[in-house]
Amino acid sequence: MNRADHRPVDDASLVAWLDGELGEADAQRVAALVTGDPAIARRAELLRAAQHELRALLRDEQALPAPARRAAPRRATPWLVAAALLVVLVIGLFARGSDQPEHATVVENQFLAVSVAPTRPEAPLFGAIRFALEGRSKTGVPCRIVARRGHEDDAALATRLFTDPTEHLGIPLVLDATVISPEGTRYSGIVRRSAGVFGTEPTKIDVALEDLLVGYGAPGLGAINPSLGMRETAEGFVADWQYQFRALGDLDVGGAHGFVPEIPGEWRIEFTLRSFTPAADSRWIGFPEPLRLACAFRVAGVVGAWSEPVDGLRARLVASASSTRADRPLAIALQLENQSDRPRAYNTTGVTLAKIPQPYHLTLIEDGEDGEQRDDLGVITSARGSYLPQPVGTRRSIAVLSDFWRLDGAAALSRPGEHRLALRFHFEPSAWLDSDKALWMGRIETPPLTIRVEAAR
After folding, report:
1. Which CATH number covers residue 124?
2. Which of 242, 277, 300 is the last residue of a domain?
3. Taking a C-beta distance cutoff of 8 angstroms, is the pair 400, 347 a contact?
4. Residue 132: inside a domain
5. Do 428 and 399 reside in the same domain of the chain?
6. How many CA atoms lie within 13 A of 425 on its CB side?
7. Which DSSP state fits 93?
8. For residue 180, what are the CA distances in angstroms to 253, 379, 411?
9. Structural domain includes residue 388
10. Residues 425, 445: one domain?
11. pLDDT tens-place string over residues 1-12
């Protein structure tokens, strides 16, 4: 065959070939492609199964003419092609089984077909959550996701695209997303850093949830972004205080930060993939409407009960799992909720003259015994993140690792068996003004969680 014979065959041509409606030359070409390409053969098999399904559905109303009785080749009837493709889509999704992620969805327009799915079925609370966008260009023009730089908005991106000659290939696209929590709260923002090109061959582009920049100042949101003293790796969680600033941004009230789920459960993410053509720039064509695709993802973890309020604040303990191994630290977090009638300010880390644990103002309690913070914790804090006024009705998280504490010289949760774990938050500044009505000080202890520890391997 010549070089043109190797071009992918479309589904309409496959349907026509299966029905005996192609001329001799075209039929030979398609037959050779089916014989020589396993992917095309699989598509033909699915289309043949779709035809059988359609014939069964239509048998009572109108018998489909057998290919052998057709006197002359003709084009496949458009409605039959559309119906066959609809059936093959359903059959194909079931036939792929474990090869296709459970929550994948597919959307397309005349330029691009794309799907999204989480890269793993479940991620631990405060762990690394990623998604795979898999797509292919349906024309000879590539579709290209342009990586935003930092907090780059549409206006800044337009200027960069207009002036940078290296950006003038393909249809430029930008990615936005909305995350919906198990409680129904919606977090929306732009996606930064993610980039890639969808050509005519299927291509996967990796998207990290932490690259979704969410404005925490919107009504109903947390207002203060989570504080993380660790990050997840392939071997589990490790201490990393730079991760907070490198990936998510400093702590503040109402700012835009990389998103991290703070509660376990079934979440959902809705991506919007829109073409981005700067005004008065005719070098690119664009999508008539944005492509919107969504998938569910699960965050694993356990949540403890809330404590009774202490001067307007109450606390609870959350953990990345209900069980762990003796040689793997557990990711846990103190969550504080402001139930008072005014913003409340306090400190969670840093050195003061008060007699409280350093550098975290927390005590881990295992089976009723107070742990001692390790004296080698290289915690990185900032003045900006101290004494933040937590708005009324909001929740904030201070996430740490269980092995930041020692009991009888051993790391917390290092003995196999079931253990009751709690956190005590206590804060007293070295000096304060009696007129400061926002200042909070005191002690709160979370109700315990039961954590099972398996022996180290």
Report:
1. 2.60.40.1930
2. 300
3. no
4. yes
5. yes
6. 26
7. H
8. 21, 32, 36
9. yes
10. yes
11. 333 344 567 777
Quickly list DSSP for 191-259: E-S--EEE-SS-EEEEEEGGGEEEETTSTTS-SBPPEESEEEETTEEEE-SHHIIIII----BS-EEE-
Examine the domain organization and report whether 83 and 50 are in the same domain.
yes
Residues 334 and 201 in one domain: no
Provide the pLDDT confidence category of residue 296 given band limits of 50, 70 and 90: very high
> Is-contact 259 128, C-beta < 8 A?
no
Question: What letter represents residue 400's amino acid?
Answer: V
Q: Please state, in angstroms and rounded to a whole number, the distance separating the CA atoms of residues 41 and 383.
A: 63
Cβ atoms of 78 and 233 closer than 8 Å:
no
CATH number of the domain that 326 lies in?
2.60.40.10
> Distance between CA 264 and CA 130 in Å, rounded?
16
Instruction: Please indicate, yes or no, whether residues 372 and 296 belong to a single structural domain of this protein.
Output: no
| Residue span of the structural domain in which 109 resides | 101-216+256-300
26 occurs within a structural domain: yes
**Domain contains 237:** no
Strands 186-191 and 130-137, sheet pairing: unpaired
Token couple for 401: 């690792």
- The pLDDT, as a whole number, for residue 106 is 80
CB burial string 312-341: b at 16+ within 10 A, e below: bbbbbbbbbbeebbbebbbbbbbbbbbebe
Q: What is the 3-state secondary structure (H, E, C) of 31-49?
A: HHHHHHCHHHHHHHHHHHH
Residue with tokens 């550098």: 359
Which of the four pLDDT bands, split at 50, 70 and 90, describes residue 400? Answer: very high
SS (H, E, C) 13-78: HHHHHHCCCCCHHHHHHHHHHHHHCHHHHHHHHHHHHHHHHHHHHHCCCCCCCCHHHCCCCCCCCH
Region 199-225: mean pLDDT is: 86
**What does residue 372 show for φ and ψ, rounded to 5 degrees?**
-115, 135
Strand order in the sheet with 372-373: 372-373, 405-407, 410-411
Query: How many folded domains does the chain comprise?
Result: 3
Helix orientation angle between 24-36 and 38-58, rounded to the nearest 10 degrees: 120
Backbone torsions φ then ψ of 80, nearest 5 degrees: -70, -40
Verdict on whether the full-model pTM lies above 0.90? no
In eight-state DSSP terms, residue 447 is P
Which residues lie across from 370 on neighbouring strands?
365
Residue 414 identity:
S
Q: What is the C-alpha separation between 36 and 451, in angstroms, rounded?
A: 56
Whether 121 and 63 share a structural domain: no
